[in-house]
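#struct-queue
[09:14] JT: dropping the first one here, sequence first, then the structure tokens:
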Amino acid sequence: IDGAIVVGDEYWKPVSLIVQSADDLLKTSKSKYAISTLEALKTAGEMGLEKVAIVALPCQINGLRKLQYFPYLAKHEEELGRTGKPVKITKIEYLIGLFCTEKFDYGNMKEILEENNIKMEDIEKFNVKKGKLLVYTNEEEKKIDLKKIELCAGCKMCKDFDAELADVSIGSVGSPNGYSTIIIRTKKGEEIKNALDLQKGVKVEEIEKLQGFKQKRFQREVNRRKENDEYISFYWASDYA
């Protein structure tokens, strides 16, 4: 590959980036709990990169597969009339999906944290466990009730916990501390598997539990929208494993 599309951050606000070295890649490794665009893919095309790998959320993997399967739609924006030129989309060589239960609205999360006397620039790490957002600074660990933080609206309609359409899916669920769970899904994924030192022993039931959690939340949200006569997007209707 000529580069990787990843998500960096500015004080935990996600930023879409292209990296072309291992050192730069390591700087982007921490988990961010707000959503990001993937605009760096378009930038990669403008830079003339031929092949990239992309690390993305399950919802984004879904959209990226559509870019691959519908090349005409991938090249022509809604605003095509502005320049009349098709967008150059770099070839996506590998899709690396992340485990994801939900993402939070960045502005709301920042506001809630400030109410708890936590500044974004002081935070060293986030984690989510048992309904709490764990926030670590160099001085202390604080727990925030997840119910107080606003979810991104689309997360309630998402059924995909473990990025089923990716080449490989990666997350911490099902593995001991210090390890990641890796699910190999395609022939491309096999190439990545052969480059890594893997061990067996993932607790599959822990993954299945969160798959079930997202499925139930999705169904509840569909029912709620039906009862309130709200708009329901059938985005998943075009998905084929």
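[09:21] JT: and here's the second one, same format:
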Amino acid sequence: MEHAAILIAPDGPSGPLRGLMDRLGSSGITTTIVDDVPTAAELARKHDSPPALLLDVREWSAGEVEDVRNAGELIRRVLVAMPTSLPVVIGDDAAPRMILACIRAGAADVIDLSLEGTATARAIVQRICLRQYDRAREQDNFGQVRGMVEDLLKDLIRTERRSIDLEERLARRE
């Protein structure tokens, strides 16, 4: 399975984020950079296996109330557009308050550019890709089982109707 990531960075990757994206690319993780959530959702649908979604929240890393609100809103928009995704937040020297708020809003993990290197980021992206792949497979299996149960119930209803019709015909003959 090929691992891929989509980075949502409205201001584009710069500084340490650009370096991280280059290092991920050199380690075999294809990273596409987009400006907004709808574009990321469209690209994610085109992948064979779900890519990791990386959310750039570096501008809000201070952890102020407004920053926390903005980061949480971005995570919620991603989860509405792609409910099975497990977004990963990327910060730079993020305040613990910000990290907790992101996790509580639905982020699956956090990469802090000031603390973590390429190996950790690569491991996180690979783990998230595998978890999303498993989630997608489970949903497909659930859909297939649900379809089989619905077909079984339809057959049962048709059989019951035939049985009622036969009982009525037998009752008329007597």
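[09:30] RK: nice, looked through the second one.
[09:31] RK: The chain has five helices and five strands.
[09:31] JT: good to know. The radius of gyration is 24 Å.
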